[in-house]
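Recap quiz, item 2
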Amino acid sequence: MQLYLPIAEVSVNAFLILGLGGIVGFLSGMFGVGGGFLITPLLFFIGVPPAVAVATGANQVVASSVSGVLAQLRRKGVDFQMGTVMLLAGFVGSAIGVWVFAWMTRLGQVDLFVQLSYVFFLGLIGAMMFQESLRSLLRSRKAGGAPIRRAHVHSWVHGLPFKMKFRASGLYISVIPPALIGAAVGFLAAIMGVGGGFILVPAMIYLLGMPTKVVIGTSLFQIIFVSAFTTIMHAVSSQTVDMMLAMLLILGGVVGAQIGTRVGVRLKAEQLRILLSLLVLTVSIRIAADLLVTPAELYSVAPGALP
Amino acid sequence: MIRALALFLALALPAAAQETIVAGMSQNRVSITADFDGSEIIVYGAVRRDAPPPESRLDVIVTIEGPATPLMVRRKDRVWGIWVNNASVAVDSAPSFYAVATTGQLHDILSATENLRQGITIDRVIRAVGITTEADASEAFVEAMLRVRTGEGRYRLMENRVQLTEQTLFRTDVVLPANLTEGIYKVRLFLLREGKVVASQERQIGVRKAGLERLIYNMAREQPLLYGLVSLVLAALSGWAASAAFRLFRA
């Protein structure tokens, strides 16, 4: 069934979009990421204009995150204090990101900037996660059981001022590291059109040492607000949120997310992380290939800005 | 004698040029609704003449031109090993859609001068407006743009696709693509003899979003903040509904 999208001004197959939303929702439910880093490139691929893809992707992320956070809430998997600290810093980062995005647009290099950010951040995070989870998977195989983990590893992070108790995470640490992480994610959300879960989840585990059971819920909590903020910004400044496209993606996505969450519960944490890292690396390599391989058509035509 | 000649000319000249077009279209309005999947326009008509037709061959050209927008054509170059948008040329105004249907091979039936005067082929239409040169080889950019847009099906040359019967009746079908831009589409009809345009006519097709498409589009333009909030509420509600539905389903 063909459907004409009012803002994107293209006609698409409704079932294709539903399926796309479903697959991304499934993955996001399984891994606790918003799925923006998948949906935005996929929408480019089927011919949705980039500006519409970025803005509508953000809208879709809100829905799948709400669906996911409700499931986590019942499991008491959300650290509201930590989430709020990251969120407030996230808005600051997002505002800076929007400014940088506008600056890059003026220079005419916004595509390259977005692509390079994708390659760099996805590649870095993916490689780090892959290496770490592979090692822990091998270790648990060799030892024949779960490795013994110390609850707290004291590092320079614990020497910083402005300490605060994060009850749900069982941490007593400075607010500076979570605030910095929140700001960085907000910045990336604005320029890459993603929620930032793929950075938040590993950062919370490895940098802050939060227990895995609160990581996904807290990440989703922060992502809801950052992507909601991004959606409003895009709707007001460039009118590129396509409600029709978003509803189709959401419809597929929320169903997929619910199934994904249930599948995710059955998998071991190491397996889950290794799969997520492979997915992240694949997207990164795919985008890097676009930059390195000689394109078939060197020229591109884009709507020009009105003078 | 001179008066007789003048009289003769006054009578003879109009008679030779007395071919006019009577044209019609299957529709003069296209509504883009949610299930819009392209539309076929039939342009038909007849040649009206007061005198018997001249010996020379009669040809018909029909063009359909979509609303024009400014464009940016960019060229990628390899910089530090990666392909980067490097040079660009701004095209002030290029039609979003352009189709030319003819009764014969275009270069046989249309002379270059006449093409220049009337602006019939797509490259003429684009070159007629100014091109802001920002790169040394803007010609290559315009050619690339024509190539890209022809590949997308936005620009079409349909030779031998106008049927002309008995030097009088003609008809052509033009399929408008699914990714139409809103606006007024200009339909031009030309009668040609020996490469020259002997008669022409212009019609319009209004392409407009309708129903739900119109509502969403207008709201996004006129009430952007409200539109953004509604999008968010819809997103949050569907997230909640899915979560609730699945819990019910499992219980």
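Chain B is about 35% helix and 40% strand.
The mean pLDDT of chain B is 83.
End of item.
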